[in-house]
Write a structure and sequence with these properties.
The complex is a heterodimer of chains A (about 500) and B (about 325). By secondary structure, chain A is of the alpha/beta class. Chain A folds into three domains: about 240 residues, Rossmann fold (3-Layer(aba) Sandwich); about 170 residues, Rossmann fold; about 70 residues, no CATH class. Chain A has 18 helices and 22 strands. Chain A has a six-stranded mixed sheet with strand order 6-7-8-3-9-10, sandwiched between helices. A six-stranded mixed sheet of chain A has the order 16-19-20-13-21-22, with helices on both faces. In chain A, strands 2-1-4-5 form a four-stranded antiparallel sheet, with no helix packed on it. Chain B has a single domain, classed as ABC transporter involved in vitamin B12 uptake, BtuC (Orthogonal Bundle), CATH 1.10.3470. Chain B has 13 helices and two strands; from the N terminus they run ααααααββααααααα. Classes of the chains: A alpha/beta (about 500), B mainly alpha (about 325). At the A-B interface, helix 10 and strand 18 of A face helix 8 and helix 9 of B.
Chain lengths: ~500, ~325
């Protein structure tokens, strides 16, 4: 290996109390694709943001081609040769302009650019850039008319026009189909040949298998594993990414009584296999899997937020096909969504109004709300799940993340439910609140089926009677939560495709 | 901390104290200001604006905005005149037509915003233009009065019925004879009604939830679209009530009246954010905001301030109120954590 393109030593970054990067050491070499893996909150996006000049580092050294590198803003990072293509493709292109303008936009802002745009010349330049990238479309097409993959290519081509030394791709295949992704991989191969150091962030097995020269895992703000030897140990990488400390929660798995919710032949995406699943009365089922494994999609289908492509659902033996969350709630299917900040918290309301929001009808006479009844129910729930606050009239925003989450979950425990869906209930929740919530969910589990969607295996082990592993929209494995074979579980999370890869190669 | 307590106190009661101070000052400085007649005059001057402002408050609550209220009010004014003078309908029919028109405009606004995804400001701006144009077509841009000549050559024979005019001009006895005009009573009734609806019913609470976090409100099963459409319909109906009262007061379909209605009522609703430190739309604040502007103008007029300074004064009040709401509240937000 010649020179190191980007050398990171002891990189640290904190936001207030929150120590996000705790001493990262990492080398990126020219002509090498480094895949970066990490669960939500592991710090990988912060790392990327430091590299692309969005955040300043607190401590540590960064070197680019042997010279110190400390970009003050994104423009400086780009001019020094670190270019990032973000997950949201439309951030990288201007959809209303044509391909030629998109590819040459930077020339227009260069100092010394003339007042008038010389279209013919720009088109010629753009054509050369496009050919260099193996793009075949007419440069006069409007970018908005292109498909997602082509737009992504344009975004990358724009990035490449600046001849970067390091290219960062953040989940580039998240909105691409398999064939579109293949075109992206060909482009990556080409760039690798040109000696660009590529940092590639993804969890998709198929991606990683196809492009990775090296896998780096992050966990809790530190590098938890580096895998460089072929064949790459993907399972080891997933295991390093998720970690599984043994938990000190004792669970005696419940069998569950009659089936409450049954999914038969549900297809979540067009390229996913049909999914069968049953949740029983009194049991807590954890659905786990990597990002994009279909967890959220499954929760949405059960709660009536999106429709499955095929298959049927039954609730207590009756046909169940909600078209809207309202219908789901009316049948006793409740969901506490993930990302409470954008999906659940009403920031202008106090605890009491937030807690009673779904069932205001039960707290009113005619149309008129009874503040007293709301407060009584809220105080009882605050007591039951241990929300730390002065009282129900505190603003929701004065609470810590864990306590806010308790309110959001408590909201759905006020009325009895048949199916309770909890999507990432432990997101941004400290360990104490996490234990409280888990204990309370298990204590109240009788009389309903509880389905918890979590990415972290630890969390599944802490709360569930049964763990179901999803992989690419299909069930990859199922375990009763007692003396679980963790190696098998982890290998199911990472997906069967890995072993096939070995066979093919 | 003393400082923080003071800040909280200023945010909460500052505006009401300012209002009380104004009243006190004008009472001392302008003889005759502190009399029932003068108070009623203030109320009368803000009644119609206030009714419109209460309607637009409902759309602000769901994080929307209705720019078409002024145009709806003038359309109702023209429609009621046209119904009685040209079509020779009864007062009751004219009023029903106007309310239906207001509801229909609100429905269209709501559908444009919810179903066709047109941003609220643009949808209601478009509707405003459309209505301003539409109300001129039947009369070829003329005002409507008994005896006017119609496009077909005949003369309009109908008249504003006395029942209709009674709505705008009758005064109830209250302590003094013929003191309180009916529009003021209507304004106060609507203010109490909207206050109860937004503040104390579950529908009102859900509307605030939608305004604060629409996604979260939808994810607990709230029919978000229906509530948003309802907010625009309330706004449309309120505006048409305002228009009917204006027509009843004027007694003719005056094409040029009601030009200031939109700005005045939006200002009242926005000033209302500052009342009691609510920092969000609320009916009590809106009514107080409307009164505040009315009292200020009445006082200044009685102290011989020229009429052309009025808009300047309103603008200044609005800007101060907005600073109250947004700057002070944001400082409180920072201080609280």
């Amino acid at each position: 290996m010649t020179q190191t393109a980007c050398k990171i030593r002891g990189l640290e970054k904190s936001f207030g109390q929150n120590h996000v990067l705790r001493g990262i050491d990492l080398d990126l070499h020219p002509g090498e694709v480094t895949v970066l893996m990490g669960a939500n909150g592991a710090g990988k996006s912060t790392l990327v943001k430091v590299l692309c000049g969005y955040h300043r580092k607190d401590a540590g050294q960064l070197e680019l081609m042997g010279t110190p590198f400390d970009p003050a803003d994104a423009a400086e990072a780009i001019s020094l040769g670190v270019v990032t293509v973000h997950q949201n493709i439309n951030d990288g292109v201007i959809p209303d302009l044509d391909v030629a303008t998109n590819l040459t936009l930077d020339r227009l802002t260069e100092p010394g650019a003339g007042l008038f745009v010389r279209d013919r010349e720009l088109r010629e330049q753009a054509r050369r850039v496009a050919e260099g990238m193996g793009l075949t479309m007419d440069v006069r097409t409007s970018v908005g008319d292109l498909d997602v993959a082509d737009r992504q290519m344009i975004a990358i081509a724009r990035a490449m026009a600046r001849a970067p030394k390091v290219l960062i791709l953040d989940e580039p295949t998240s909105s691409l189909s398999a064939t579109e992704a293949e075109r992206l991989f060909e482009l990556i191969d080409r760039l690798r040949g040109q000696g660009v150091a590529i940092l590639y962030i993804s969890h998709r097995v198929s991606d990683i298998r196809r492009v990775a020269d090296k896998i780096v895992c992050m966990r809790d703000g530190a590098i938890s594993g580096i895998f460089t030897e072929a064949p790459l140990d993907y399972e080891g990488a997933v295991s390093a990414m998720l970690g599984h400390r043994m938990t000190d929660v004792d669970i005696t798995p419940q069998q569950g009584a009659d089936p409450v919710l049954e999914l038969r032949g549900i297809r979540l995406t067009s390229d996913a296999a049909p999914l069968d699943f049953t949740a029983r009365d009194g049991e807590v089922v954890a659905i786990t899997g990597l990002l994009g494994s279909g967890k959220t999609k499954m929760a949405e289908v059960v709660f009536g937020l999106s429709q499955p492509l095929a298959g049927k659902m039954q609730l207590d033996g009756q046909v169940y096909s909600p078209a809207h969350p309202r219908q789901a709630v009316a049948r006793g299917v409740f969901m506490s969504p993930k990302d409470r900040g954008s999906n659940a918290v009403i920031p202008d309301f106090d605890i009491s109004d937030n807690m009673t929001l779904p069932f205001l009808g039960a707290f009113s006479r005619g149309s008129f709300l009874s503040g007293r009844r709301q407060r009584r129910a809220t105080d009882a729930m605050i007591e039951r799940i241990g929300v730390v606050c002065q009282g129900g009239s505190d603003s929701i925003l004065t609470l810590s993340g864990g306590n806010q989450q308790k309110v959001m979950i408590g909201r759905w425990l006020i009325e009895p439910s048949r199916v309770l869906l909890l999507d990432e209930p432990f997101q941004g929740v400290d360990i104490g609140a996490r234990r409280d919530i888990g204990r309370h969910i298990r204590a109240t589990a009788q009389g309903r089926a509880t389905i918890v969607f979590v990415s972290e295996i630890d969390e599944a082990l802490e709360i569930a009677d049964r763990i179901v592993v999803l992989h690419e929209g299909a069930v990859a494995g199922e375990h009763i939560n007692q003396n679980i074979d963790l190696t098998a579980l982890v290998s199911q999370v990472s997906g069967p495709a890995w072993e096939e890869a070995g066979a093919e190669g | 901390m003393g400082n923080e307590r003071l800040l909280n106190f200023a945010i909460k009661y500052g505006f009401l104290i300012l209002l009380a101070g104004l009243i006190l000052y004008f009472s001392l400085a302008a003889p005759g200001f502190a009399s029932p007649r003068s108070a009623v005059f203030v109320l009368q001057s803000v009644a119609i604006t206030g009714i419109l402002a209460l309607g637009v408050t409902c759309t602000l609550v769901v994080d929307g905005f209705d720019l078409s209220i002024g145009a709806v009010a003038t359309s109702a004014l023209m429609l009621s005149a046209y119904a009685m003078v040209v079509l020779e309908l009864s007062a009751g029919m004219a009023i029903v037509l106007c309310l239906l028109m207001g509801a229909a405009v609100g429905l269209v606004n709501g559908l444009l915003i919810v179903k066709f995804r047109v941003p609220d400001l643009l949808a209601t701006l478009g509707m405003m233009f459309l209505l301003i144009g539409l109300q001129r077509i039947p009369t070829q841009g003329n005002s409507i009065a008994t005896g006017m000549s119609l496009p077909d050559g005949s003369t309009a024979e109908g008249t504003f019925s006395s029942t209709f005019l009674w709505l705008g001009r009758h005064r109830l006895d209250f302590f003094l004879e013929n003191l309180v005009p009916l529009p003021v009573v209507v304004f106060l009734l609507i203010a109490v009604g909207i206050w109860l609806f937004l503040g104390f019913t579950r529908q009102g609470r859900l509307m605030y939830a939608i305004g604060s976090n629409e996604r979260a409100a939808g994810l607990v099963g709230t029919p978000v679209s229906r509530y948003k459409i309802m907010a625009y319909m309330i706004s449309g109906v309120m505006a048409s009530v305002g228009g009917v009262l204006l027509a009843a007061r004027l007694g003719r379909g005056d094409i040029a009246s009601g030009t200031n209605l939109l700005l005045d009522s939006v200002a009242a609703a926005l000033i209302g954010f500052a009342v009691l430190g609510a920092a969000r739309p609320n009916a009590f604040g809106t009514a107080t905001g409307a009164l505040f502007v009315g009292i200020l103008l009445q006082g200044l007029t009685m102290m011989n301030a020229p009429y052309y300074t009025q808009d300047f004064v309103k603008g200044a009040v609005l800007v101060i109120a907005l600073v109250f709401t947004f700057y002070l509240s944001s400082r409180r937000g920072v201080g609280g954590h």
